[in-house]
Design goal:
mainly beta; eleven-stranded antiparallel beta sheet; 11 strands; globular
């Protein structure tokens, strides 16, 4: 077991009431080794101070080791249950001093890898200003849409 911690908010106040289904997937050397979902997650509000930190439990079928290429894919859709909006836009926060979106990889010390700019993963948090990506969630219970894919190489343990 592992987890991903994802900061999720709204693009603007017009989207208040929408809820999201969030899916996280982890790949090692191109093969999926982990995934997890959280359903009907509230969007919070606009601005980072109103975003919500969501923990997505991950179930793994393998481990990673030093030198492995890893990818983290985050996907979102308008929730199948609980959403009061037929469409809306979410804001996904990452990289900053406070927006420490991360994924814990299986194996070794199970240290978190942080989502960085340039769609990269790194074992240390960034010290920059919080970054965000906006995305339209679409109709209720529609297809998941990938927010992004972050990649990196597993570093040597501590």
């Amino acid at each position: 077991m592992g987890a991903s911690q994802v900061w999720l908010g709204l693009k603007n106040s017009d989207d208040v009431g929408i809820r999201f289904d969030v899916k996280a997937e982890v790949f090692k050397n191109g093969s999926r080794i982990g995934s997890g979902e959280r359903n009907s997650v509230p969007g919070g509000g606009s601005g980072f101070d109103r975003a919500w930190l969501n923990v997505i439990p991950l179930t793994y079928s393998g481990t990673v080791a030093e030198g492995d290429s890893v990818s983290f894919v985050l996907s979102v859709r308008n929730a199948c249950a609980g959403s009061t909006k037929n469409s809306g836009a979410a804001r996904f926060w990452y990289e900053g001093k406070t927006a420490t979106t991360q994924v814990t990889l299986p194996g070794g010390a199970a240290v978190p890898y942080f989502l960085q700019s340039s769609l990269s993963l790194a074992p240390t948090p960034a010290t920059a200003t919080n970054l965000f990506l906006d995305f339209v969630a679409g109709a209720k219970c529609g297809e998941y849409k990938a927010v992004g894919t972050w990649t990196g190489t597993v570093a040597a343990g501590p």
